[in-house]
TrEMBL record:
Alphabetized SUPFAM superfamilies for the sequence: Class II aaRS and biotin synthetases (SSF55681), SufE/NifU (SSF82649)
Protein's name according to its UniProt entry: lipoate--protein ligase
Enzyme class: ligase
Matches recorded under NCBIfam families: lipoyltrans
Enzyme Commission code(s) on record: 6.3.1.20
UniProt keyword ATP-binding, yes or no: yes
PROSITE patterns documented for this protein: BPL_LPL_CATALYTIC
Length: 332
Protein backbone atom coordinates (compact mmCIF):
# COMPACT_ATOMS: atom_id res chain seq x y z
CA UNK A 1 0.00 0.00 0.00
CA UNK A 2 1.30 3.45 -0.93
CA UNK A 3 1.60 5.61 2.17
CA UNK A 4 4.05 8.17 0.84
CA UNK A 5 4.43 9.86 -2.55
CA UNK A 6 7.55 11.75 -3.54
CA UNK A 7 8.30 14.12 -6.40
CA UNK A 8 11.80 14.72 -7.75
CA UNK A 9 12.80 16.77 -10.78
CA UNK A 10 16.14 16.81 -12.59
CA UNK A 11 17.49 20.14 -13.81
CA UNK A 12 20.28 18.53 -15.86
CA UNK A 13 19.80 17.43 -19.47
CA UNK A 14 22.69 14.96 -19.87
CA UNK A 15 20.98 11.57 -20.50
CA UNK A 16 23.75 9.58 -18.78
CA UNK A 17 23.33 11.56 -15.59
CA UNK A 18 19.53 11.29 -15.74
CA UNK A 19 19.61 7.51 -16.20
CA UNK A 20 22.01 7.29 -13.25
CA UNK A 21 19.55 9.24 -11.08
CA UNK A 22 16.70 6.99 -12.21
CA UNK A 23 18.59 3.84 -11.23
CA UNK A 24 19.62 5.20 -7.85
CA UNK A 25 16.02 6.20 -7.12
CA UNK A 26 14.97 2.65 -7.96
CA UNK A 27 17.54 1.19 -5.56
CA UNK A 28 16.51 3.53 -2.72
CA UNK A 29 12.72 3.66 -3.17
CA UNK A 30 10.99 3.11 0.18
CA UNK A 31 8.78 0.12 1.04
CA UNK A 32 5.48 2.05 0.90
CA UNK A 33 6.63 4.86 -1.40
CA UNK A 34 5.81 5.88 -4.96
CA UNK A 35 8.28 8.27 -6.58
CA UNK A 36 7.47 10.45 -9.58
CA UNK A 37 10.69 11.53 -11.32
CA UNK A 38 10.58 14.10 -14.15
CA UNK A 39 13.58 14.65 -16.42
CA UNK A 40 14.64 15.89 -19.84
CA UNK A 41 17.43 14.90 -22.23
CA UNK A 42 18.94 17.15 -24.85
CA UNK A 43 19.48 15.91 -28.42
CA UNK A 44 19.46 12.20 -27.50
CA UNK A 45 18.56 8.85 -28.99
CA UNK A 46 17.65 6.29 -26.32
CA UNK A 47 17.62 2.62 -27.33
CA UNK A 48 15.99 -0.30 -25.51
CA UNK A 49 17.94 -2.82 -23.45
CA UNK A 50 18.21 -5.45 -26.21
CA UNK A 51 18.46 -3.31 -29.31
CA UNK A 52 21.35 -3.22 -31.77
CA UNK A 53 22.53 0.41 -31.67
CA UNK A 54 23.95 0.29 -35.20
CA UNK A 55 20.63 -0.85 -36.67
CA UNK A 56 18.33 1.46 -34.72
CA UNK A 57 20.19 4.75 -35.06
CA UNK A 58 22.40 6.62 -37.52
CA UNK A 59 25.19 6.67 -34.96
CA UNK A 60 27.75 8.68 -36.93
CA UNK A 61 25.25 11.37 -37.96
CA UNK A 62 24.07 11.78 -34.37
CA UNK A 63 27.65 12.06 -33.13
CA UNK A 64 28.57 14.60 -35.83
CA UNK A 65 25.59 16.72 -34.77
CA UNK A 66 26.71 16.70 -31.12
CA UNK A 67 24.00 14.31 -29.94
CA UNK A 68 24.01 11.52 -27.38
CA UNK A 69 23.28 7.82 -27.79
CA UNK A 70 22.35 5.97 -24.60
CA UNK A 71 20.91 2.57 -23.72
CA UNK A 72 18.26 2.26 -21.00
CA UNK A 73 17.71 -0.85 -18.83
CA UNK A 74 14.10 -1.34 -19.96
CA UNK A 75 12.90 -3.04 -23.13
CA UNK A 76 11.09 -1.50 -26.08
CA UNK A 77 12.20 0.52 -29.06
CA UNK A 78 14.39 3.52 -29.85
CA UNK A 79 13.14 7.05 -29.15
CA UNK A 80 14.42 10.56 -29.80
CA UNK A 81 14.51 13.13 -26.99
CA UNK A 82 15.02 16.88 -27.17
CA UNK A 83 14.01 19.64 -24.78
CA UNK A 84 10.50 19.61 -26.22
CA UNK A 85 10.06 16.19 -24.62
CA UNK A 86 9.45 15.48 -20.94
CA UNK A 87 10.26 12.09 -19.43
CA UNK A 88 8.49 10.64 -16.41
CA UNK A 89 9.27 7.64 -14.19
CA UNK A 90 7.10 6.01 -11.54
CA UNK A 91 9.22 3.98 -9.08
CA UNK A 92 7.70 1.57 -6.53
CA UNK A 93 8.07 -1.77 -4.80
CA UNK A 94 6.64 -4.61 -6.92
CA UNK A 95 3.63 -5.16 -4.66
CA UNK A 96 2.64 -1.50 -5.15
CA UNK A 97 3.06 -1.48 -8.93
CA UNK A 98 -0.20 -0.42 -10.60
CA UNK A 99 0.17 0.44 -14.27
CA UNK A 100 -3.43 1.61 -14.72
CA UNK A 101 -3.12 3.98 -11.77
CA UNK A 102 0.19 5.33 -13.01
CA UNK A 103 -1.17 5.90 -16.53
CA UNK A 104 -4.20 7.61 -15.00
CA UNK A 105 -1.82 10.26 -13.65
CA UNK A 106 -0.69 11.01 -17.21
CA UNK A 107 -4.21 11.02 -18.66
CA UNK A 108 -5.53 13.33 -15.90
CA UNK A 109 -2.54 15.64 -16.25
CA UNK A 110 -3.11 16.28 -19.95
CA UNK A 111 -6.86 16.56 -19.34
CA UNK A 112 -6.08 19.45 -16.98
CA UNK A 113 -4.55 21.11 -20.04
CA UNK A 114 -7.71 20.52 -22.07
CA UNK A 115 -6.48 17.45 -23.95
CA UNK A 116 -8.43 14.20 -24.09
CA UNK A 117 -6.14 11.17 -24.10
CA UNK A 118 -6.53 7.40 -24.14
CA UNK A 119 -4.38 4.31 -23.61
CA UNK A 120 -3.56 2.25 -26.68
CA UNK A 121 -2.31 -1.29 -26.30
CA UNK A 122 0.09 -1.82 -23.45
CA UNK A 123 2.56 1.00 -23.84
CA UNK A 124 1.21 3.97 -25.82
CA UNK A 125 -0.99 6.96 -24.96
CA UNK A 126 -2.81 8.74 -27.78
CA UNK A 127 -4.45 12.10 -28.40
CA UNK A 128 -6.48 12.58 -31.55
CA UNK A 129 -5.51 9.06 -32.61
CA UNK A 130 -1.78 9.86 -32.56
CA UNK A 131 0.88 8.76 -30.10
CA UNK A 132 2.37 11.39 -27.77
CA UNK A 133 3.64 9.00 -25.09
CA UNK A 134 5.47 5.68 -25.26
CA UNK A 135 6.06 3.65 -22.11
CA UNK A 136 8.50 0.94 -20.99
CA UNK A 137 8.97 -1.14 -17.86
CA UNK A 138 11.81 -2.51 -15.75
CA UNK A 139 12.19 -4.51 -12.56
CA UNK A 140 15.18 -5.20 -10.35
CA UNK A 141 14.89 -7.31 -7.24
CA UNK A 142 11.86 -6.22 -5.22
CA UNK A 143 11.52 -2.87 -7.02
CA UNK A 144 10.31 -1.81 -10.45
CA UNK A 145 9.60 1.25 -12.53
CA UNK A 146 7.44 2.40 -15.38
CA UNK A 147 8.79 5.26 -17.45
CA UNK A 148 7.84 7.05 -20.62
CA UNK A 149 7.98 10.07 -22.86
CA UNK A 150 5.63 13.03 -23.18
CA UNK A 151 5.98 14.83 -26.49
CA UNK A 152 5.18 18.44 -25.64
CA UNK A 153 6.88 20.23 -28.53
CA UNK A 154 9.47 17.85 -30.00
CA UNK A 155 11.20 18.63 -33.29
CA UNK A 156 9.52 15.75 -35.14
CA UNK A 157 11.77 16.22 -38.17
CA UNK A 158 14.69 15.00 -36.07
CA UNK A 159 12.94 11.66 -35.44
CA UNK A 160 13.46 10.46 -38.99
CA UNK A 161 16.87 12.11 -39.20
CA UNK A 162 18.41 9.77 -36.63
CA UNK A 163 16.08 6.79 -36.16
CA UNK A 164 15.99 3.91 -38.64
CA UNK A 165 12.60 2.25 -38.15
CA UNK A 166 12.03 -0.85 -40.29
CA UNK A 167 9.31 -0.82 -42.93
CA UNK A 168 8.01 -4.06 -41.41
CA UNK A 169 7.45 -2.35 -38.06
CA UNK A 170 5.71 0.62 -39.64
CA UNK A 171 3.51 -1.74 -41.64
CA UNK A 172 2.51 -3.52 -38.42
CA UNK A 173 1.40 -0.13 -37.05
CA UNK A 174 -0.57 0.65 -40.23
CA UNK A 175 1.41 3.82 -41.04
CA UNK A 176 3.94 4.95 -43.64
CA UNK A 177 6.43 6.80 -41.43
CA UNK A 178 7.35 7.61 -37.85
CA UNK A 179 6.21 11.21 -38.32
CA UNK A 180 2.73 10.14 -39.43
CA UNK A 181 1.96 8.23 -36.23
CA UNK A 182 3.12 10.73 -33.56
CA UNK A 183 1.94 14.15 -32.40
CA UNK A 184 3.04 16.86 -30.02
CA UNK A 185 0.68 17.87 -27.22
CA UNK A 186 1.16 21.46 -28.38
CA UNK A 187 -0.92 20.61 -31.45
CA UNK A 188 -3.91 20.22 -29.11
CA UNK A 189 -3.05 23.04 -26.70
CA UNK A 190 -1.25 25.97 -28.31
CA UNK A 191 -0.29 27.56 -24.97
CA UNK A 192 1.27 24.38 -23.58
CA UNK A 193 4.74 24.60 -22.03
CA UNK A 194 6.95 21.95 -20.44
CA UNK A 195 6.76 23.87 -17.15
CA UNK A 196 2.96 23.84 -17.30
CA UNK A 197 2.98 20.12 -18.09
CA UNK A 198 5.16 19.46 -15.02
CA UNK A 199 2.71 21.36 -12.80
CA UNK A 200 -0.21 19.40 -14.21
CA UNK A 201 1.60 16.10 -13.62
CA UNK A 202 2.35 16.87 -9.97
CA UNK A 203 -1.28 17.94 -9.39
CA UNK A 204 -2.60 14.78 -11.06
CA UNK A 205 -0.11 12.64 -9.11
CA UNK A 206 -1.46 14.02 -5.83
CA UNK A 207 -5.06 13.67 -7.00
CA UNK A 208 -4.76 10.03 -8.12
CA UNK A 209 -2.87 8.93 -4.99
CA UNK A 210 -4.96 11.09 -2.66
CA UNK A 211 -2.14 12.72 -0.76
CA UNK A 212 0.36 15.57 -0.84
CA UNK A 213 3.68 14.82 -2.48
CA UNK A 214 6.91 15.32 -0.59
CA UNK A 215 9.90 16.57 -2.57
CA UNK A 216 13.51 15.50 -2.95
CA UNK A 217 16.38 16.93 -4.93
CA UNK A 218 19.08 15.22 -6.97
CA UNK A 219 21.66 16.84 -4.69
CA UNK A 220 20.33 14.79 -1.74
CA UNK A 221 21.27 11.52 -3.47
CA UNK A 222 24.57 9.70 -2.94
CA UNK A 223 26.88 11.55 -5.34
CA UNK A 224 29.54 8.83 -5.33
CA UNK A 225 26.97 6.21 -6.29
CA UNK A 226 25.62 8.51 -9.00
CA UNK A 227 29.11 8.97 -10.45
CA UNK A 228 29.56 5.20 -10.71
CA UNK A 229 26.20 4.75 -12.43
CA UNK A 230 26.91 7.63 -14.81
CA UNK A 231 30.19 5.92 -15.74
CA UNK A 232 28.24 2.76 -16.60
CA UNK A 233 25.75 4.58 -18.82
CA UNK A 234 28.61 6.44 -20.53
CA UNK A 235 30.60 3.29 -21.34
CA UNK A 236 31.00 1.87 -24.81
CA UNK A 237 30.38 -1.63 -23.44
CA UNK A 238 26.94 -0.73 -22.05
CA UNK A 239 25.87 1.40 -25.01
CA UNK A 240 27.04 -0.76 -27.90
CA UNK A 241 27.73 -4.16 -26.37
CA UNK A 242 30.04 -6.29 -28.44
CA UNK A 243 30.19 -6.81 -32.17
CA UNK A 244 29.88 -10.45 -33.26
CA UNK A 245 31.44 -11.71 -36.49
CA UNK A 246 28.36 -13.75 -37.24
CA UNK A 247 27.91 -16.46 -39.86
CA UNK A 248 24.11 -16.46 -39.87
CA UNK A 249 21.46 -13.88 -39.07
CA UNK A 250 17.84 -14.86 -38.46
CA UNK A 251 15.12 -12.28 -37.93
CA UNK A 252 11.36 -12.33 -37.42
CA UNK A 253 8.66 -9.90 -36.31
CA UNK A 254 6.19 -11.17 -33.71
CA UNK A 255 3.10 -9.34 -32.39
CA UNK A 256 5.19 -8.43 -29.32
CA UNK A 257 8.30 -7.23 -31.18
CA UNK A 258 11.10 -8.10 -33.59
CA UNK A 259 13.83 -10.62 -32.72
CA UNK A 260 17.17 -10.89 -34.52
CA UNK A 261 19.60 -13.72 -33.79
CA UNK A 262 23.22 -13.43 -34.90
CA UNK A 263 25.11 -16.72 -34.78
CA UNK A 264 28.79 -17.51 -35.23
CA UNK A 265 29.03 -21.10 -36.42
CA UNK A 266 32.27 -23.09 -36.77
CA UNK A 267 32.54 -26.79 -37.43
CA UNK A 268 28.76 -27.03 -37.32
CA UNK A 269 28.54 -25.68 -33.75
CA UNK A 270 27.29 -22.32 -32.50
CA UNK A 271 30.43 -20.76 -30.99
CA UNK A 272 28.89 -17.40 -30.20
CA UNK A 273 25.44 -15.82 -30.30
CA UNK A 274 23.85 -12.39 -29.90
CA UNK A 275 20.15 -11.59 -29.62
CA UNK A 276 18.52 -8.23 -30.33
CA UNK A 277 14.92 -7.13 -29.86
CA UNK A 278 12.59 -4.19 -29.26
CA UNK A 279 10.26 -6.31 -27.11
CA UNK A 280 9.07 -5.03 -23.74
CA UNK A 281 10.44 -8.05 -21.81
CA UNK A 282 14.26 -7.74 -21.85
CA UNK A 283 15.19 -10.75 -19.73
CA UNK A 284 14.02 -13.49 -22.11
CA UNK A 285 16.15 -11.94 -24.88
CA UNK A 286 19.16 -11.58 -22.57
CA UNK A 287 18.86 -15.31 -21.76
CA UNK A 288 18.75 -16.53 -25.37
CA UNK A 289 22.52 -16.62 -26.17
CA UNK A 290 23.38 -18.90 -23.25
CA UNK A 291 20.84 -21.45 -24.44
CA UNK A 292 22.34 -21.44 -27.93
CA UNK A 293 26.11 -21.41 -27.37
CA UNK A 294 27.80 -24.77 -27.86
CA UNK A 295 24.86 -26.39 -29.67
CA UNK A 296 25.08 -27.93 -33.11
CA UNK A 297 23.54 -25.57 -35.63
CA UNK A 298 20.67 -27.92 -36.30
CA UNK A 299 16.98 -27.64 -35.61
CA UNK A 300 16.93 -30.89 -33.64
CA UNK A 301 19.60 -29.49 -31.30
CA UNK A 302 18.31 -25.92 -30.91
CA UNK A 303 14.58 -26.49 -30.38
CA UNK A 304 14.80 -28.95 -27.44
CA UNK A 305 17.31 -26.69 -25.70
CA UNK A 306 15.06 -23.65 -25.99
CA UNK A 307 12.21 -25.84 -24.74
CA UNK A 308 14.02 -26.02 -21.40
CA UNK A 309 13.35 -22.31 -20.82
CA UNK A 310 11.19 -21.61 -17.78
CA UNK A 311 9.89 -18.37 -16.30
CA UNK A 312 7.40 -17.33 -13.65
CA UNK A 313 6.24 -14.73 -16.16
CA UNK A 314 3.55 -16.18 -18.44
CA UNK A 315 4.32 -13.59 -21.13
CA UNK A 316 7.96 -14.65 -21.26
CA UNK A 317 6.90 -18.30 -21.50
CA UNK A 318 4.67 -17.48 -24.47
CA UNK A 319 7.40 -15.44 -26.14
CA UNK A 320 9.75 -18.43 -26.02
CA UNK A 321 7.03 -20.70 -27.42
CA UNK A 322 6.54 -18.22 -30.27
CA UNK A 323 10.27 -18.21 -31.02
CA UNK A 324 10.44 -22.02 -30.97
CA UNK A 325 7.51 -22.13 -33.40
CA UNK A 326 9.29 -19.66 -35.70
CA UNK A 327 12.63 -21.51 -35.59
CA UNK A 328 10.90 -24.83 -36.27
CA UNK A 329 10.11 -23.47 -39.75
CA UNK A 330 13.50 -21.84 -40.43
CA UNK A 331 16.02 -23.52 -42.74
CA UNK A 332 19.13 -24.44 -40.74
Amino acid sequence: MIEKITYIESSQTDPRKNLAVEEQLLLTCGADECILYLWQNRHTVVIGRNQNAWKECLVDRLKEDGGYLVRRPSGGGAVYHDLGNLNFTFLVQKENYDLDRQLEVIIRAVKRLGIEAEKSGRNDILAGGKKFSGNAFYEQGSRCYHHGTLMADVNIGELSKYLTVSKEKLKSKGVDSVKSRVANLKEFCQDLTVAGLKEALVAAFEEVYGQKAGTRSVEELDQEELAGLEKKYSSWEWTFGRKTDFTYELSHRFPWGTVTLQLQVKGGRIEDAAAWSDCMKPQVILDLPRYLKGLYYRREAVLPQLGLFWSEDAEEEQMMKDMISWLSEVEF
